[in-house]
Backbone:
């Protein structure tokens, strides 16, 4: 075993001669913050020699295709650890934690992760949670029971608060778990934490309901599905809200408006919806440049009202609340809320908790509306609120906790 | 040690009480294709109890900020393995391999990874290669020597061939390595391989030169930089090209044209360039919908001519080559090539090898041009070529290699 340049607390060596395969595949392990190294220089040389052979035949040359399920390997029973996703089951067996490195293309010009990237990672960890549960059917997060009833998940509300954006190359841990939301809904929460210090960088909470894939109407939760998912529910909240603040509906007197926005093919996700991230972009593109440069997005609330199809033409409206003075902050009424194509959904699904907290004078807030430009009338896609605070430099000296 | 639902060939257990930390951090290991599990149910319960405590203080509440270098932990010497990036050094110590799971937001409506996502992963693995080398300075892939001379990398040409797009949840291995390209350039190649079968899904090659960050002019490679990077060069090619095919310059007679395209803030990368992926989107948005639906992008060539700033207005032109008949396929002349702001670059940097191969009648090819709409004249940003072939279903039965 060769020695390496940094301390190796514990060493395991192994190599596999994979039957029919071209390569020895060595694996490594992380233990005690140190590394179990499974690679010796001899291994490296032998691997290198093999890899340096004439070009490896490509799929096309062999004309082989492997079945989707063989390629995906979706677990059919609960898994506690996934080494490839760097995920593990936590919270006494019902929560999920994934270790993630912030990638170079997930950060903006200032080297910090964008809200878009964070929301992508929230989606990814949510799906990997279902993946690990053994409940995942072939759909986009749908369980076997949901597939049977032709149901898909739709998000009705999402709130993300970011205290600190991770930077390029930083390692974070994302925890996610689910709970009940009224009779027919599910809450999903997240915490994003610095892997190095354990400090919380961001928190998220969201509410999900089921929609029939054919009729595109919301559905009650079938008992069969409840039996699948309710054992995973816990009563833990990433964000403490006493009641929801109401987001008023903007009209064409809004200060900023971008019109004639068209979804592109590349904006559709596996459910053939316009992706969340596109909504977020449309919202943020109405924010003035000087704000984007000097401020950082500290929280975002998205309330989804209806689907947006690939042929819709969209308008993004935005209205600032000057000087951080709160406006339109009425409690949501405890009545029926019209959501998605006129389907009425008990507000209990949406009920949760409190105001976003108090605001400094320097805090900026914007109310947002995305709507489909209709001939007779416009149809709401989403209401939103963004809160912004002054950017802080990340390069001041380390201070101990 | 609790028993788990799937075979555990080898078990290591360990836990860390991290000094001053909130959590025990358990690590796991992959060995011989099996899994070294480091988590027992007792561990899980104890972890869960800790995680379920009252909410963990956030960064803002503590007012602490950690220095960038502490958060990034860029290695100052060569690393052979990175467990978080799932990366390791191969090719006798000079190449890099990273294992990657295709994420839910990296795939399109058909569940296969998009070309955009693949190009993002190529960028990511290239940077992680430099990261592991110990040469990375604080810039976007620049070495210490480059920083000293105020140099950044710019890509002058990129070719990606995809035989098979990985699907959501599929595990791939991406190999990357570098070689010399003429006197002042560097070639970087990639292979994307199925982790399960070892078959090659995609190949890439690219040519890079150095640019002065202030003057925005191309630079020779300083000897100090050559000394840093040349020990990493190898003579291995992911794609065999005998000579480059020339991409003709389109004019306003091109069949498809999208005008008035404006880069958004979110399109800028850490170098404050408009990101590659944005160029790709602008190119692909000119391709007719029926092609995007029935065909898959099997190869793409990008030839970069000049930078695009955030205030430029861009035009994307596209011209089909009907019936796959090759046009404009002249060998590139062995003369000086004008590149980026009039800087002349010896064509030897760009020289490499041959035609893309022969084409079936069903293959579609498009020539692309991105240019800045100027008052006096338009300035070329990029020429490109895309090749498309009929989509194949991924669900036909597994056939052995």
Residues:
């Amino acid at each position: 075993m060769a020695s390496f340049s940094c301390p190796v607390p514990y060493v395991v060596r192994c190599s596999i001669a994979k039957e029919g395969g071209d390569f020895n595949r060595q694996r490594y392990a992380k233990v005690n913050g140190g590394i179990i190294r499974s690679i010796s220089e001899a291994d490296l040389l032998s691997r290198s020699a093999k890899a340096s052979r004439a070009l490896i035949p490509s799929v096309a040359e062999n004309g082989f295709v492997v079945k989707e399920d063989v390629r995906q390997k979706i677990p059919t029973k609960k898994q506690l650890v996934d080494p490839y996703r760097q995920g593990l089951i936590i919270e006494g067996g019902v929560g999920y934690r994934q270790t993630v490195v912030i990638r170079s293309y997930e950060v903006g010009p200032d080297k910090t992760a964008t809200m878009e990237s964070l929301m992508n990672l929230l989606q990814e960890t949510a799906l990997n949670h279902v993946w690990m549960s053994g409940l995942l059917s072939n759909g986009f997060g749908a369980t076997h029971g949901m597939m049977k009833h032709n149901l898909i998940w739709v998000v009705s509300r999402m709130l993300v608060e970011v205290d600190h954006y991770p930077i390029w190359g930083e390692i974070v841990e994302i925890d996610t778990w689910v709970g009940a939301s009224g009779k027919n809904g599910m809450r999903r929460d997240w915490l994003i934490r610095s892997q190095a210090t354990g400090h919380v960088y961001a928190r998220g909470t969201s509410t999900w309901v089921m929609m029939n894939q054919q009729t595109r109407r919301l559905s009650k939760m079938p008992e069969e599905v409840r039996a699948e998912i309710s054992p995973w529910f816990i009563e833990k909240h990433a964000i403490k809200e006493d009641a929801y603040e109401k987001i008023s509906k903007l009209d064409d007197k809004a200060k900023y408006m971008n019109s004639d926005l068209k979804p592109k093919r590349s904006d559709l996700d596996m459910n053939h919806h316009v992706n969340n991230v596109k909504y977020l972009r449309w919202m943020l593109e109405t924010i003035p440049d000087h704000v984007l440069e000097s401020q950082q997005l500290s929280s975002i609330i998205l309330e989804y009202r209806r689907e947006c199809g690939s042929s819709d033409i969209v308008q993004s409206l935005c209205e600032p609340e000057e000087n951080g003075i709160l406006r339109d902050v009425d409690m949501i009424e405890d009545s029926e809320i019209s959501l998605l194509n006129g389907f009425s959904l008990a507000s209990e699904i949406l009920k949760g908790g409190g105001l976003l907290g108090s605001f400094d004078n320097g805090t900026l807030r914007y109310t947002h509306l995305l709507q489909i430009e209709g001939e007779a009338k416009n149809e709401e896609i989403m209401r939103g609120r963004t809160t912004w605070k002054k950017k802080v430099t990340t390069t001041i000296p380390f201070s101990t906790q």
Notes: Chain B has three domains: 2-69, 74-241, 245-323+362-394.
